[in-house]
Amino acid sequence: MTISLKTIYAAALASVVFLAPGVEASKCSCVRPTIRREWRTLSVEKRLAYIDAVKCLMNKAPESSTDDLPGVRSRYDDFVGTHIVQADFAHFVGKFYPYHRLYLHSWEKALNTCGWTDGLPYWDWNRDFGTDEDFFNSPVFDEVTGLGGNGAWVLGNITHPEPGFSINAPWDMPDRTGGSCIQTGPFANLTSSFGPHDNIAFNPQPECVRRDFSPQSFQDITNPDNVEMAMAQVDYGWFSMMTEPTIHAGGHLGVGGLYGHMADKWASPADPIFWLHHGNVDRAWWSWQKRDLKNRVNDISGPIINFDYANEFGGNITLNDVIYIGETVKLETTIREVMHIQRGPLCYDYDELY
């Protein structure tokens, strides 16, 4: 299937990436890694337990300061807020994958404080590829044992949006089907303290978290062919550059559409589906790494400055560059420490890989 990624990505896909020299990632004593499993393979009891843990974080007091995140109200907000603050430094740059790997690790540890002791579940997009109905009927969106469904239909398009609704997608979404608050499931009428976009100010009337399912965009961008294309890349630079605007973006846009939070580069973690989606994003990277782990555990590159894939302005990242998860637990490490998921601070594995 031919995919149009729009002008914003075209230059990136045509650029050249030079690899930074690497040194083997440090080792640790990861004896019993937690196992991350696909959502629908979990028992009903496990799915409900995960949902309860997420709700627990939404009801816990924040650990960040209002000096850093003026609008923070909960422990869950800590994670949304830190993503907003760091989004411009962690997307369309070389550290995209390492940053989000550490970010998910921090989230997983927070879930542990709410009784969740298993690995972070993930959403394997390939299992819901096919027809629009395959997407709509995904167990991820189940009203009882999933994270709930779509928002109600809202009029408008990218040039004439409905008044009061922020545009979150980078282009129009003619296949969108919703746009308003989550209607069903455990997170129906969920609100977010932050957003839209990079807004972290205190909001006395938080907006609801919106979904705008766009099934055809999901099928076009996040599909098995693009997953295989990702696995075929010869180095990290090309892997990252080819996948961030395809299999990664398609999951965001498929759920977020035009108006939904998942399409918001900054505030997308406000939608709990974010964590399952990014669990699979990390799984895709590890799947690619495992195909030549000896070399790929040290393979890192990509721009320091957003979209600077030709290295005209800032050069490449290296294994020694620092990644920092700010307003969650003040977690800081180097990229080198997260290149292997059973070394450094990490200790997990996936039930299966691509």
Protein model, in words:
- This protein is mainly α and 354 residues long.
- The chain has one domain (14-350): Di-copper center containing domain from catechol oxidase (di-copper center containing domain from catechol oxidase, Orthogonal Bundle).
- It has helices at residues 7-13, 44-59, 75-90, 96-112, 132-136, 215-221, 224-231, 236-256, 273-290, 293-296, 326-329; strands at residues 34-36, 151-153, 179-182, 191-192, 207-208, 322-325, 331-334, 348-350.
- The strands form 4 sheets. Strands 1-8 form a two-stranded parallel ribbon.
- The longest helix is centred in the last third of the chain and has 21 residues, at 236-256.
- The two termini are 20 Å apart.
- The model is unreliable at 1-25 (pLDDT under 50).
Could you list some keywords that capture this structure?
single chain; globular; mainly alpha; two-stranded antiparallel ribbon; di-copper center containing domain from catechol oxidase; 11 helices; disordered N terminus; two-stranded parallel ribbon
Task: Write out the strand line-up for the largest beta sheet, numbering strands in chain order.
Answer: 1-8
State mean pLDDT (0 to 100 scale): 92
Largest sheet: 2 strands, parallel
What portion of the residues fall into strands of 2 or more residues?
5-15%
Radius of gyration from the CA trace?
Answer: 19 Å
| Continuous helix count | 11
Structural class of the secondary structure composition?
Answer: mainly alpha
Amount of helix = 25-40%
Shape: globular
